[in-house]
Amino acid sequence: MFKRLSAALLLAAPALPVCAYGPTVGLDAFYTHQDSGDATGEGFGARVTAKLSADPDLFLAGQYQKNDVDAGSLKQWRAGFGMGAWTDDSAFIYWQLEYVDLHLPNVLDDQGGAAHLGLAASVTPRLSIYGRGGYVKLKDNDGPEFVGGLAGQISGGLGAFAEYRYTRLDSIELNDIWAGLRFTF
Q1: Fold of 2-14+24-184
Q2: Residue 123 contacts by C-beta under 8 Å, 6 or more apart in sequence?
Q3: Which of 30, 66, 70, 122 is most buried, with most CB under 10 Å away?
């Protein structure tokens, strides 16, 4: 895990001097609850995003998540990139491609990719909603994935978020609920 999270942070580092406008790097730390048959339990995760340019908005993203579940430790690692554009001052539409690595002892050990389309919209200057849908294609499994969430800015570079992710693969169905803090730099 340390090597993968370090790699994600190193990928994000070049974005710092490139963008002098607004937050360019975000770090999420979250609690997660998994409720999926053999994969029911709690855990933690971290996600890093780095904005590389403003027009178009190019970004990198990396995530690690570990849930201690009935069947062992469910571990997820994701790394990817995407691009988006503001449709007006309050809506952002984007696409994202990512590498996905899922591991649950004796149930799932698979790697592959995912593609998503998403939309984020500001409800108020401090509150936004977001969602994305796509497809996960791993070596031995594939299926749809949907994410929805709510994010709020507490102050300056500190925010909070709640998110739900549903992934339906051939061998397992994953239901993740996240709640965490977002730090932006």
Answers
A1: Porin (2.40.160)
A2: 129
A3: 30
Cα 51 to Cα 58: distance, rounded to the nearest angstrom:
6
Helices and strands, counts by H and E, the chain = 2, 10
Tell me the three-class secondary structure of 48-68, residue by residue. Answer: EEEEEEECCEEEEEEEEEEEE
CA dihedral over 118, 56, 6, 140, signed as positive or negative: positive
pLDDT of 89: 75
Please tell me the distance from the alpha carbon of residue 40 to that of residue 34, in angstroms, as a whole number: 5
| pLDDT score for 136 | 98
Amino acid 38: pLDDT:
63
pLDDT one-digit tens code per residue, 76-127: 999 999 999 988 878 999 999 999 999 988 888 999 999 999 999 999 989 9
**Residues whose CB is less than 8 angstroms from the CB of residue 124 and which lie 6 or more positions away in sequence, other chains included:** none
The parts of the chain modelled with pLDDT lower than 70 are 1-23, 37-38
- Residue located via tokens 């001097």: 17
The type of residue at 14 is: P
Rounded to 5 degrees, what are φ and ψ at 18? -70, -40
pLDDT reported for residue 14: 39
